Every structure is written in structure tokens, then in C-alpha cells.
Amino acid sequence: MRVAQPDDATPRRPRRAPTNDERQRDAERSRQRLLAAALDEFAARGYAGARVGAIAARAGLNAQLISYYFGGKAGLYRALQESWLERESALTAEPQSLPDLIAAYARAALDDPRGARLLLSGGLHDDEPETSVDPTGAADVAEMTRRQAEGEIASDLDPALLQVALMGATLAPVALPQVVRRLTGAEPDDPEFTARYVEFLRRLAARLGE
Q1: Distance (Å, rounded) from C-alpha 191 to C-alpha 123?
Q2: What is the pLDDT at residue 131?
Q3: What percent of the chain has pLDDT over 90?
Q4: Measured in Å, how far apart are the chain's first and last C-alpha atoms?
Q5: Where is the stretch described as Disordered (predicted)?
Q6: Residue pair 139/130 in contact by the 8 Å Cβ criterion
Q7: Strand, coil or helix: what is 107?
Q8: CATH architecture for segment(s) 20-78
Q9: How far apart are CA 143 and CA 127, in angstroms?
Q10: pLDDT at res. 94
Q11: For the domain 92-210, what is the CATH superfamily, name and number?
């Protein structure tokens, strides 16, 4: 009996070239993997301490793709900030009371603390690139001033300082997990603690009115 040789096998069809849609989906997946890896790396090491090679290794991709998709390390950092601004726009898309707004920010920070860690790292290391997205904060203060005029915030509270204080409150469990454990006996990433803390901030914000 004759044993079939490789040449006797049915010829394989040529491998199909990916379509434009498939290429775009692959590119978007690669971009998202790099952004996720960069978020972890920048949050852990700051902008100056983060390494392009380490980000690529976290993502399991070639480091050259960072230059290809983002123009380099600074562009990647900027893309992360822009993605947060998009997320923030979604949080504030619908009109909300101040208590509901603060609760939404706190829940977002606790559900995925990587964005909060990136913000905290930028302040701790003070090394953000010159091309960094740098909102003036004027719009945030104007929004607080509007709420104050409508009675949600007492007239003797400085809107800008209140903005700083509320940001600190939403970031506190991420910035000070050891303090959370010491004072409450809970883990900051425990869903039960998240629910308690979000509700606490909601009640706190509700008491800021006249």
C-alpha cells in the first residue's frame, strides 16, 4: 500500500488577506492594549520613570507600535488623558444634582482606580510632559459657582477650594488605602466599602447647601 506523501495532499488555499475592516479592528485592539498597559505603567512609575519597552511588554506588543499609533511616549500619555476626559464627559452628560455627581465620580474612581492613580502619580512625581492635556479648571469652577447661585452650595464656601476638597474626597480611598484599612477595617476595593463610601459622599455633598 502506497503511503501518501506531502505532495499528494490537496493543495491548501492561499491565505486570505485581511480586509480593511479587519485591519482596523486589529489596530484598535492593539491601541487599547497599549493604552491599558500604559495606564498601569505610568500610574506605577510616573511619566519620567515609565519605559516604552515596559509598556510594550505589558501589552505583549512591539514597542515600535507606540510610535506608530501615538507618536511616542508623550503622545501615549496624552491619549490616556484624553480618554479620561471622554469618560468624564459621559459622567456629566446628563444634568445631575451635586450629591449624585460626586457619587458618580467616587464610584468611577473606586470601580477602576487606575485613572485615579494616574492623576495621583502626576501630582506626586510632577513630571507630566509639556504636551500633556492641561485643562485650566475654569469650567469646573464656573459649574460650582452656578450650583452655588442655585443654592446647592452655601454662599460662604469658596467654589474653587470646594472643587479641590471634593476631588480629594473622591480620590482618598485610592490614595490612602492603608488609612481606609486602619480606620474602617475594610479593603478599599471591597464592593461593600465602595457602596458605603459612595453613599457617604452623597450625603456629605447634600449638606453643602444653605
Answers
A1: 27
A2: 58
A3: 58
A4: 97
A5: 1-29
A6: no
A7: helix
A8: Orthogonal Bundle (1.10)
A9: 29
A10: 80
A11: Tetracycline Repressor, domain 2 (1.10.357.10)
